[in-house]
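Tip: read the tokens left to right.
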């Protein structure tokens, strides 16, 4: 098996769809020797902010000298991004080896009449095997979908549980109210867990606290008053930690956007908890990590004159945060919006935030069988807002449409991560 065959094998399991539940994952990991039971985890759930917060925690642990795994999804440009060790994506050779190992175990189970694991179960198993083989000290493990029945919830006793911002998303799987979604996500809390919670909607917070109480878990609530934005530009922002859990004052955060301040605060509370548990992390480790941390595709600026940026805001809460950032970073500017979204997302609410800030609107079709076609999106915007909207058949054509001579304009690709990754590749190829 080579790298192309390995990735093709994994992606072919997409045909088995999304199947929530832990039985198949339990069987597969048991056949693999239960590598997850030999690892330590920080388990991260939520609707928005999981990836950025996980990246901040992992970067800090790595800077402190810990052999640190990071498991996130989806990838933007290359599959290997989903499984990282010390901020470096898994190499092709290791990915092939872990995939071959997992494939052999799947074939044993299939011969016994067990169902084939889903794509996400497969990827999770490959990641866990790799982290085990690399003798990882700790893994920052991002939930795929929900929490209660997510494949990552196979882990037994996390070092810390993190619950990020919760809002309506994947309602066909997770429930039609914020409370129902919160229950699914809070269900990664285990008996006696230490839990750090991002500032929440009261309805979601009540569910989280009730669930934590039922599990005798200790809860740390990130308090927005404990972080302030001192200044920002197109390269970083200066934040000030005002809490009393860390010996930290003013520091630089490379990730842009006001929403990242609360993500960062949540990460800092996790780090404070780890220090309390005996992890050797100091303020220098934290500052160095946060000043350099990257998480591609989140309010990421490539050019400044004219501005070209991408943002993987793919639901209404993410879009709302994106619009707030645009108003802060580029007030009064001409905004050329390139937009695409999955059809099962809350598109009309997202458009209610996006359309008012856009000077021109161009639509694209994300690379997913769940995508709303660009032409359909363009018609929806025109019918709802009376705006003239262009649509593009390819991302290449959209990127090449940017007029680099118009130095004062802002060109923004926003929406589904299945679109943003392709935009990122072509922007770097054609414009830089």
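Filled-in amino acids:
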């Amino acid at each position: 098996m080579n790298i192309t065959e390995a990735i093709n094998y994994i992606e072919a399991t997409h045909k088995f769809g999304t199947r929530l539940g832990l039985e198949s994952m339990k069987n597969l990991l048991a056949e693999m020797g239960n590598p997850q039971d030999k690892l330590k985890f920080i388990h991260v759930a939520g609707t928005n902010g999981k990836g950025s917060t996980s990246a901040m925690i992992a970067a800090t642990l790595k800077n402190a000298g810990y052999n640190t795994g990071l498991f996130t999804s989806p990838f933007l440009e290359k599959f290997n991004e989903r499984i990282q060790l010390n901020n470096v994506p898994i190499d092709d050779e290791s990915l092939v080896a872990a995939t071959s190992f997992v494939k052999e175990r799947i074939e044993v189970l299939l011969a016994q009449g067990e169902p084939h694991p889903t794509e996400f179960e497969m990827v999770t198993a490959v990641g866990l095997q790799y982290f085990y083989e690399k003798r990882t000290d700790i893994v920052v493990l991002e939930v795929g979908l929900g929490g209660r029945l997510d494949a990552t919830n196979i882990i037994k006793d996390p070092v810390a549980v993190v619950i990020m911002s919760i809002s309506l998303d994947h309602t066909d799987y997770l429930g039609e109210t914020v409370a129902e979604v919160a229950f699914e996500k809070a269900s990664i809390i285990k008996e006696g867990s230490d839990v750090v919670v991002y500032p929440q909607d009261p309805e979601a917070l009540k569910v989280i606290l009730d669930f934590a109480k039922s599990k005798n878990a200790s809860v740390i609530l990130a308090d927005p008053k404990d972080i302030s934005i001192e200044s920002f530009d197109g390269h970083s922002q200066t934040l000030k930690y005002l809490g009393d859990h860390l010996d930290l004052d003013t520091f630089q955060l490379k990730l842009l956007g006001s929403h990242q301040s609360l993500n960062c605060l949540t990460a800092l509370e996790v780090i404070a908890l780890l220090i309390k548990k005996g992890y050797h992390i100091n303020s220098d480790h934290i500052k160095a990590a946060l000043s350099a941390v990257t998480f591609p595709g989140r309010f990421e600026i490539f050019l400044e004159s004219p501005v070209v940026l991408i943002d993987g805001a793919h639901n209404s809460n993410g879009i709302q945060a994106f619009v707030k950032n645009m108003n802060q970073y580029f007030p009064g500017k001409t905004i050329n919006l390139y937009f695409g979204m999955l059809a099962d997302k809350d598109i009309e609410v997202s458009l209610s935030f996006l359309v008012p800030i856009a000077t021109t609107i161009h639509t694209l079709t994300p690379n997913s069988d769940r995508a709303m076609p660009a032409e359909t999106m363009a018609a929806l915007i025109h019918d709802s807002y009376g705006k003239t909207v262009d649509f593009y058949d390819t991302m290449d054509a959209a990127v090449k449409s940017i007029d680099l001579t118009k130095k004062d304009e802002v060109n923004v690709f926003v929406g589904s991560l299945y679109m943003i990754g392709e935009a990122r590749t072509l922007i770097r190829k054609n414009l830089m």
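The longest helix spans residues 92-111. The first strand starts at residue 41 and ends at 45.
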